[in-house]
Amino acid sequence: MSAWQLGLLLALVIVAGLAYVLWARSRAMERRTGLPKGEVIYADTEGWEACRPLFARHWRLAGKPDYLVRVGNDTIPVEVKPSRRAARPYEGDVLQLAAYCLLVEEVEGRPPPHGLLHYRDQAFRIPYDDPLHERLLAVMDEMRCALRSDDLPRSHDDPARCRSCGYQEVCGEALGDAMRRGRTFTAG
Prior knowledge:
single chain; about 190 residues; alpha+beta; five-stranded mixed β-sheet; two-stranded antiparallel ribbon; 5 helices; 7 strands; about 45% helix
């Protein structure tokens, strides 16, 4: 075998090795993020340039999904909750994903058929259908009404969340205070 043939063979081995490493990293990213097969067109994660928020003027809504993946003619929002484990998706996470679906619908001019919610051990395919759309709009209206209210009751049904709240020191309704005083509060 001549020197140039040996060099060519070595170059092919190196290229094949690099291709394998890139393929393996891509597969690992798919498993970790729950990304579907398709082209990632938006990523609000480290390593990507800063992504601008999506904006829906009509709904007065802005947001930055973790990923948008083009699959065929559809743009699928993907939200990753890497530390979360649950048999069913949390309602708040479903509504957050629905908001991203609404933003995609506004920006693209057509709704995505679904969004993907990826927890630590499993991914949930959430259909973006009329009932979810209507539920999202109702919650957005409820939130806007609450923001205009002078007296907004706090929800204190989650001790762990209350303990990690940044307002705990100044909140007269904090669960820690209530427990120390022997009082309890119900969810507001």
